[in-house]
Amino acid sequence: MLPLAELHLHVEGTLEADLLVTLARRNDVPLPSYDPAELTARYANFGDLQAFLDVYYANLAVLRTEQDFHDLAAAYVTRAAAAGVRRAEIFCDPQTHLANGVPLEVVFGGLGAALAEARANGLSADLIVCFLRDLGGDAAEELLRQALPFREHFIGVGLDSAEVGWPPALFRRAYEMAAAEGLHRVAHAGEEGGPEYVREALDALGVERIDHGNRALEDADLVARLRDERVPLTVCPLSNVALKGVARIEEHPLPRMLELGLVATLNSDDPAYFGGGIDANVAAVRTSLGLTDDDLATLAANSFEAAFIGETDRARWLAEVAAWRAG
Ligand code: ADE
Ligand code: ZN
User: Fold this and answer.
1) Per-residue confidence (pLDDT) for residue 30, from 0 to 100
2) Does ligand 1 have an atom closer than 6 angstroms to the CB of 159?
3) 234 lines ligand 1 (CB under 6 A)
4) 275 alpha carbon to ligand 1 midpoint, in Å?
5) pLDDT given for residue 252 in this prediction
6) pLDDT band at 224 (very low <50, low <70, confident <90, very high)
7) Could you tell me the distance, in angstroms and rounded to a whole number, from the CA of residue 202 to the centre of ligand 2?
8) What is the pLDDT at residue 42?
9) Minimal CA–CA distance to 90: which of 29, 146, 158?
10) 56 in Cβ contact with 243 (< 8 Å)
11) Per-residue pLDDT at 140
12) Which residue CA neighbors atom 6 of ligand 1 most closely?
């Protein structure tokens, strides 16, 4: 199996319908349906990113206790390890849970316990705290201040939620605070927003990777910069099709990104909602985009180049990819 790092994965987006129903019953939280198949069927036709986010945030009301957060993350890391993931850098959205009345102790306690178990079982995993861009820059700074006492639980900050109308520069001070704390910095950009969002994430926020980045391809100078500076793009093909950024999987720009020499990586974003995890994304790009084993090995090598890991782990996993490529 192809060894990979998964670098663009929202833990809240791994909430499968079965677990959603279990947690709703456990915590007495109402759902529109208690039939996992019917709930999953509702995910088949999101009009855009916001239509998805409305469902995603509503479902998160079922997460109440440390045990709930543990069970969510534990289920993901078990599936990821079985799919060949060696390293997972996992986004979480604490502002959503705070708004639901769940304190950060509960969020980090539960997620942290699951990741400690994952590490004991040989999967390398860390958390990246995301700012919800549609809550604005002041709220991002406030979240970071509240999260710093839990600094041992996360290695970086990210920026997610509705993109258009919420340009990266609004978050400059929050990212400066994060940099001063020695935190890694990434941001969603170019998912629905244009190339200017990608450029601004690099210039105003100093990000080390771009999450998605698809619309960077509309700007040749920006493509040259991403290629020359080897800025990784964490690309999510099934997500892009589900949220209508790309009309059909056959039209996904991932092959073009590789041709252009970009450091593209393959990721699942919100696997409970977009038709499956990293393995489903691998299958889709193989069968519908015609990517070869050699291309897949390049994506895997890119993922370990882009991961926030030590050089010993990087060398070990790159050697595993080289062995896989050699067959
Ligand atoms: N939050 C969860 N998934 C997201 C995505 N694909 N884009 C922006 N915010 C998100
Ligand atoms: Zn995402």
Assistant:
1) 97
2) no
3) no
4) 15
5) 98
6) very high
7) 17
8) 94
9) 158
10) no
11) 99
12) 269
Average pLDDT value for the chain: 98
Name the region of 16 (left: φ>0; alpha: ψ -120 to 50; beta: rest).
Answer: beta
Smallest CA-to-CA distance from 115 within 168, 167, 78 is with 78
Q: How confident is the model at residue 1 (pLDDT cuts 50, 70, 90)?
A: very high
Residues catalogued as catalytic: 191
- The 10s digit of each residue's pLDDT in 252-262 is 999 999 999 99
Verify whether ligand 1 is closer than 6 Å to residue 270 (CB atom).
Answer: yes
Q: 211 CB under 6 A from ligand 1?
A: no
d(CA 75, CA 263): 29
H or E segment to which residue 214 belongs = none
pLDDT for 125-149, tens place per residue?
A: 999 999 999 999 999 999 999 999 9
Rg (CA), the chain: 18
Interval between CA 65 and ligand 2 midpoint (Å): 24
In this prediction, residue 56 carries a pLDDT of 98
* Count of domains forming the chain: 1
CATH number of the CATH domain containing 57: 3.20.20.140
How far away, in angstroms, is 323 Cα from ligand 2 center? 30
What's the pTM value of the predicted model, to 2 decimals?
A: 0.98
| Ligand 1 mutation pick, 11, 53, 191, 235, max ligand atoms within 8 A of CB | 53
How confident is the model over 195-213, as pLDDT tens digits?
999 999 999 999 999 999 9
| Alpha carbon distance 304, 81 (integer Å) | 15
Show the domain range for 213: 4-326
Helices marked H in the chain — which ranges? 17-27, 36-41, 49-59, 66-82, 94-99, 104-120, 137-147, 172-180, 195-205, 220-228, 237-242, 254-259, 278-287, 293-306, 311-326
* Residue 160 CA to ligand 1 centre (angstroms): 5
267 lines ligand 1 (CB under 6 A): no
Tokens of 76: 């993901």
Pocket test for ligand 1, best of 270, 273, 274, 281 (most atoms within 8 A of CB): 270
